[in-house]
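Two folds, back to back.
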Amino acid sequence: MFITYNLRILFPTVLCLVMSHEKHSSLSLSASWVAMRKHNNNHHLELLLLPIILFCQPVSAIDFVFNGFNSSSVSLYGSAVFESRILTLTNQTSFQIGRALYPTKIRTKAPNSSLVYPFSTSFIFAMAPYKNVLPGHGLVFLFVPFTGIEGATSAQHLGFLNITIDRSPDNHMFGIEFDVFANQEFQDMNANHVGLDVYSLTSTAAADAGYWLENSTGSGSNGNSSDDVKKYFKEQQLNNGKNYQVWIDYADSLINVTMAPAGMKRPSRPLLNVSLNLSEVFEDEMYVGFTASTGQLVQSHKILAWSFSNSNFSLSERLVTTGLPSFVIPKDPFFRSKGFISGVTVGGVLLVVSAATIFWFFSLREDKGKQGREQKWRIGNRSIGHTELRVKRSRQQQKDSVKKMSSELEEMERSIRVCYQEAQRLL
């Protein structure tokens, strides 16, 4: 009687668990076991179910959370290093590639099947510019079938692919790019976008980097009117040194990509919401991680935290999003700002020119007054020879005055040139 009763409860429960496993629901089987235990007081049933649940637990299940990195977290390639538990992919060196991958492959497809396992990942990144240096190029969250950086080039290729294997289905590469350079070769929409890269850096879908406000409607940025974008969309500059959090969810051939400033609640409306079948892209097992590059344009690409799971879509809530370092370049004091220096320079030049003009005007006026008085005196005294002498003397004085003024103007020109060169040096 006891066995019959328990089997009557056991089989439907096991059936539900197996079905949830086949559908790859967001709850793991072990989580289902914990939930069932809370609501079932029959300890005999628990003991019977536990071995079955552990046996049914998928070998593909993987969960990890990194609030900081070390050598046991990820494997590094190229220029990637750890800096105070921050994963730094590139630095100020030109034309370099930095890559970091989870140390072991993860199963991305069911064995002997085209069924792709769902996954959920979230990470916090920053693109830190250097002062007085043009920033570039961007980073990619990627799935790749091999380790190392072979087959990748720097600059506009983002350390993801190279021109030889780009657009080749044999490369089995998939990535979400965060790109700050508009490259015509890959038909980039602008120099600040997020894109889905399947086999290629020519994105299958892309959107301006940013997030949608909570009162906006729709499922993504595609197909929205310009009025909606202006009213509800908040564009974010990727390489301003601020920290941004990204959420990427994939299930049932649908991928959602969302981003927002770190510490902000996840926006309910995704940035990208795209139907995407990865069954022909993924191999059965893949490495997962990040890659970035510099070219003539350089910036530091940093990953501050990362979570990944193919069984728990709420794991991202365990990331630490506050109290993180900022990589925004500090502003110069006001008296050293470009506006202040330019204003002082222009103001000084105008002041000198105005003073010179006024001085020149009064000098000419004074010379003309003297000449007029001398002419009156000469006519009154009717002294022809004496008049000629004074006219010659007056003309000579006028020439001397003009010569003096020319010398002063040349001196002012030299002073203005020095001021301008100093302003250029400070700017």
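---
second:
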Amino acid sequence: MTRIHTALATLLLVVPGLATAQEIQPNEEPMTLEQLLETYPDLSAIEFAELDTDGDGYLDADERAAMNELDIADDD
């Protein structure tokens, strides 16, 4: 019975964490210039700095949405 209780307690701790991890979409996480260059090799450091409106060195989802205005996003 103790093993069952231990297993159930473990599941109660792990399952909510898995649900939270699945809710986070990759496109919602802030990205660095280096990460964006993998997808957008034509993105310049100057353009990145213009998009990084809060100056934290990352582009969040809102800042990346502005990439469409600069005609950078997915030109291929």
